[in-house]
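Incident log, support desk, overnight shift.

02:14 A customer reports that sequence design results differ from what the structure should imply. Their input is reproduced verbatim below. On-call engineer (initials T.W.) acknowledged and began investigating.
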C-alpha cells in the first residue's frame, strides 16, 4: 500500500481507509469507563492490536470473553456486499464449553435480572436462549479451542481463508492469548532465545496481518511476579505498572497499538473491583490523563455492562457506594476467570 501526495486516487484511498477504521469502524466496549479511557473516538479501531496485560487470575480471559460478546452486541459493522461480519474468538486455555457458559452467565443475569443454579439448566434451554439472543444481531460469532502447540500464525491464516470462502468478513479477532501460541510454521525463527523470539515474531505477524486485512486483534499478556509484589504494596498498583513487567519481553508493549494494565483490588469494605489504566493508544492519543484510569465493581455475577445506562465506573473505589457490590466469597466463581 502506498500514497503519493500528488496522486488524488492514492490520497483518497488512504483517507477512506482511515475513516473506515477509525471513525465508522470503531469497536465500542460494554463499559463506559473503558470507552472513555480509549479517547474521544470511544473504542478500538479496526486494524489495531490491543493488549490487556495482567498477572495470573486478574481477568485477562474475562476481558477477552467480554470483548467477544461486546463486539456483537454493541456494534454494527459495514462489510463488503454479500458478506457477513464475523467475530472470531480463539482460546488456548479455557475450553469452549466454559467460554459459552461464561457468555450465557453474563447475559442471562443482566437481561433476566436473576441468578441461576447450573443444576436446574437443561442443554435445550441454554441452547435455545443463546441462539434466540444472538440471532437478533447481524454479526456472527465463532469460538475455537486449540492446544497451544496446535495453533500458529499459519493455522490462523488458513482458518481466516476458510471463513472468507463461506462469505464472512472478519472484523474482530480475539485471542486468549498471544504468548501461548506455540505452533511453529515453516520459516519461523528459533534462535538461542527460543520461545521469546517466537512470541515476538507472532506479535509482529498477527499485528501486520490484522492491519493489512483491516480487523481488530485483541489479546492478553502475562505480567511478571514483580507486578504481584507492587499490587501487594500499593493501592491502584496499575498506575505503577510499566513495560518492564511484561513477561518474556517488553516487545509486546512496543508492537501493540493499545496497551491496558489490569489488576483486581478490594476497597476498604472488601468489595472487589477491576482496575484498568490506558498506557498506550497509538491511534487515538487524546485521552486526558485523568480519564485513563477507572475501576469497575464486581457484582455477584461479575462485571456488569453499563453502556447505554447510567455509568457504573469509578475512579475512587473507597468512595463507591455499597448497594450492589460483592466481596470475594459472594462472587460466582466463573465470574473471576
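02:41 Re-run completed on a clean worker. Output:
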Amino acid at each position: 500500500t502506498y500514497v503519493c501526495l500528488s496522486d488524488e486516487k492514492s490520497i483518497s484511498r488512504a483517507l477512506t481507509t482511515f475513516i473506515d477504521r477509525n471513525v465508522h469502524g470503531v469497536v465500542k466496549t460494554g463499559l463506559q469507563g473503558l470507552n472513555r479511557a480509549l479517547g474521544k473516538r470511544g473504542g478500538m479501531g479496526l486494524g489495531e492490536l490491543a493488549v490487556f496485560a495482567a498477572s495470573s487470575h486478574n481477568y485477562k480471559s474475562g476481558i477477552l470473553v467480554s470483548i467477544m460478546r461486546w463486539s456483537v452486541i454493541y456494534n454494527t459493522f459495514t462489510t463488503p456486499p454479500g458478506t457477513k461480519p464475523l467475530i472470531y474468538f480463539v482460546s488456548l486455555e479455557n475450553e469452549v464449553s466454559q467460554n459459552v457458559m461464561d457468555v450465557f452467565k453474563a447475559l442471562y443475569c443482566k437481561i433476566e435480572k436473576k441468578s441461576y443454579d447450573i443444576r436446574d439448566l437443561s442443554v435445550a434451554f441454554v441452547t435455545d436462549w443463546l441462539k434466540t439472543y444472538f440471532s437478533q444481531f447481524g454479526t456472527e460469532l465463532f469460538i475455537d479451542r486449540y492446544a497451544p502447540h496446535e495453533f500458529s500464525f499459519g493455522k490462523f491464516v488458513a482458518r481466516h481463508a476458510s471463513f472468507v470462502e463461506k462469505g464472512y468478513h472478519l472484523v474482530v479477532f480475539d485471542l486468549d492469548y498471544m504468548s501461548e501460541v506455540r505452533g511453529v510454521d515453516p520459516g519461523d525463527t528459533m534462535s538461542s532465545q527460543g520461545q521469546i523470539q517466537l512470541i515476538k515474531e507472532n506479535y509482529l505477524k498477527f499485528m501486520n496481518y490484522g492491519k493489512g486485512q483491516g480487523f481488530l486483534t485483541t489479546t492478553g499478556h502475562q505480567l511478571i511476579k514483580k507486578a504481584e509484589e507492587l499490587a501487594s504494596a500499593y493501592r491502584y498498583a496499575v498506575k505503577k505498572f510499566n513495560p518492564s513487567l511484561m513477561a518474556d519481553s517488553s516487545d509486546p508493549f512496543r508492537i501493540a497499538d493499545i496497551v491496558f494494565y489490569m489488576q483486581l483490588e478490594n476497597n476498604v469494605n472488601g468489595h472487589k473491583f477491576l482496575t484498568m489504566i490506558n498506557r498506550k493508544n497509538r491511534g487515538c492519543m487524546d485521552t486526558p490523563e485523568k480519564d485513563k484510569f477507572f475501576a469497575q465493581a464486581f457484582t455477584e455475577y461479575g462485571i456488569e455492562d453499563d453502556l447505554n445506562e447510567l455509568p457504573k465506573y469509578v475512579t475512587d473505589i473507597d468512595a463507591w457506594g455499597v448497594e450492589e457490590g460483592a466481596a470475594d466469597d459472594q462472587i460466582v466463581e466463573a465470574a473471576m476467570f
